[in-house]
Amino acid sequence: MAHEDHGAIYDLLAARGVSRRDFLKYCGSIAALLGLSESFVPQIAAAVNHGAKLKPAVWLNGGACTGCTESIAQVDTPDVATIVLDLLSIDFMETLSMAMGEDALAAAEAVFEEPGYILIYEGSVMQGFDGNALRIGGKTGLEELDHAAPNAAAIVAVGSCAVDGGFVMANPNPADATGVKPYLEGKGITTPVVNLPTCPVNPEWLVAIVVDVLLLGSLESGAILDKLDDWGRPKYIFGQTIHDNCPRRGHFENGNFVNEFGTEEEALGYCLYKVGCKGPQTYTNCPIVRWNRRTSWCVESGAPCIGCGSLDWVDVGAPFLNRHRDLPLPGVGNTQPGVVAGVVAGVAALGLGLHAVGMKASGRMDGGAPYEEMKAHDRKRMQKGGGK
């Protein structure tokens, strides 16, 4: 990198006790997350350094528990992710700016007047209660989103609530909650929306998207839209199931399951599928990126995946500690996995059903078929009649 790229970011890092080496290592992890080679590390580092000179960001809140805000902001020691977000000029963050009152609202309004900012939206869009929910500064939540969305260069919907309504949308959904993208489409607002589900969002995913959209120019080039799946999620984050990368995958293959919490099987770290793990049908890279500065994640801490990276995850996944033979879908009722393969998990449900035939034939699994993509070694094993 040129000397001018060694500016504000390095001074800020040094002041907060983070070395330049750690920062460059972190930029390497962002490059890997974006599917880029290590040769992009200097470009990402330089882009982050100049981030404050680029588009400002505004963080608005809909109907939520502020869990995504806490995921980003409440850390016990400064880490690179929060430093990067500090530098990227989030000019207004509704929850954290509350004490500033009218001054904070005026700052946000100044941003809204100039097209090209990024809008980060947390929480569900609450259409019920005659549209009068979530009043802030005299505006309802709907009025605030209607005002902020059109001039944004892009909207990042953080957390499941912002993506499809999340737990606020769960049956019976008295708030008539929905996600940002479907709401804006209904209003005819065409601002691009990048969806980052899970409950809460992973801070590193948000950093990667901000770097990709704002700093590497993928929004202006239109490249970001090619990186999204049919649900508006980045493929490089949500392109594989949790089961694909789960460290307990070997126990699944060997038929070693936890059937009840508090048992020896749990202490041995066996597969949690039979106690409700939704990893085979949930698409995120949680096992790779993990949480809390890559310290751990749900399954590693001993809890089954509850599927919060999927759409309508509360109604589809509950009860969370039960294994499902049927998948309840809104307006459909209880439906066998094979029937909804194209809706819930594409070809994954059907593939995992076939995979389970081989597993059951080998005597390593009883009871019904889970869902996952079929792997090459699984297919060979099936062809051999389940033998190793």
Please report the distance between the alpha carbons of the first and last residues: 51 Å
Whole-number total of structural domains? 2
Q: Report mean pLDDT, rounded to a whole number.
A: 78
Total count of strands: 9
Brief sketch in words of this structure:
The chain is 39% helix and 9% strand. With 388 residues, the protein is an alpha/beta fold.
Summarize the topology.
Elements: H1 8-15, H2 20-33, H3 41-49, E1 57-61, H4 67-73, H5 80-87, E2 90-93, H6 102-112, E3 118-122, E4 125-126, H7 141-148, E5 154-158, H8 160-164, E6 177-178, H9 180-187, E7 193-196, H10 203-215, H11 218-221, H12 223-226, H13 235-238, H14 242-245, H15 249-253, H16 264-267, H17 286-289, H18 313-317, E8 327-329, E9 333-335, H19 341-344, H20 348-361, H21 376-383
Looking at this protein, list some descriptive labels.
5-stranded parallel sheet, two-stranded antiparallel sheet, alpha/beta, Rossmann fold, Cytochrome-c3 Hydrogenase, Chain A, domain 2, 388 residues
What does it look like?
This protein is α/β, with parallel strands linked by helices and 388 residues long. It folds into 2 domains: 235 residues, NADH:ubiquinone oxidoreductase-like, 20kDa subunit (Rossmann fold), CATH 3.40.50; 142 residues, Cytochrome-c3 Hydrogenase, Chain A, domain 2, CATH 4.10.480. 39% of the residues lie in helices and 9% in strands. The chain contains 21 helices and 9 strands. The strands form 3 sheets. The chain has a 5-stranded parallel beta sheet with strand order 2-1-3-5-7, sandwiched between helices. A two-stranded antiparallel sheet has the order 4-6. A hairpin with a 3-residue loop joins strand 8 and strand 9. The longest helix is centred in the first third of the chain and has 14 residues. It starts with 7 loop residues before the first helix and ends in a 5-residue tail after the last helix. The N terminus is likely disordered.
